[in-house]
Structure formats: structure tokens, C-alpha cells
Design brief:
Blueprint (H helix, E strand, L loop, with lengths): L3 E6 L1 H6 L9 H9 L6 E2 L3 E3 L6 E3 L2 H11 L7 E7 L3
Antiparallel strand pairs: 1-5, 2-3, 3-4, 4-5
Length: 87
Amino acid sequence: MSKQIRVTVEEKHIKEGVRGRTKNCPLALALNEQYDTEESHVSYLWCHIGPLGDPYALSYRAIKFIDDFDGGKKVEPATFVFKKSTR
């Protein structure tokens, strides 16, 4: 994978997303679709594409998106860019 990734969360990902589920949140669903996998997951600070994927640091906007979604607030489709972690 590259040093950064771009993911676009669409309305369908938001509708199908499950609050508080790292593998079923809108970001994970969008990553699965865009990177042709079923094993992406998103934590509070990181995302992984695929079961053994490298960690990518979430942007502040993505963290707020997750917080809002998990908190039951309305979220809108958006595009996010994440940088590969060096941890």
C-alpha cells in the first residue's frame, strides 16, 4: 500500500453502518468496497485495510466523523485521506 490512502464514505455506507462496530462503521464499509476486501476495521485512531493491513492514522475530521456517527449525530458523505503510520 502507498504512504497515504483516500477513502470516500457515501450515503449507502452511512445507512449500512453500525454504531460502535469497528468492522461495520461507515469508514470500514467504504474501505472494504474501495480496496476490495471484507476485513477492514477502524479504531479510534487507526484504520487497517484487510486482516493484516498496515495501520493508517485517522485524520481529525475522520475521528470527529466516527464520534458523531457513534453518538447518533447526523453525518454527511465525505472523503478522507489517511497517512501510513510509522509506529
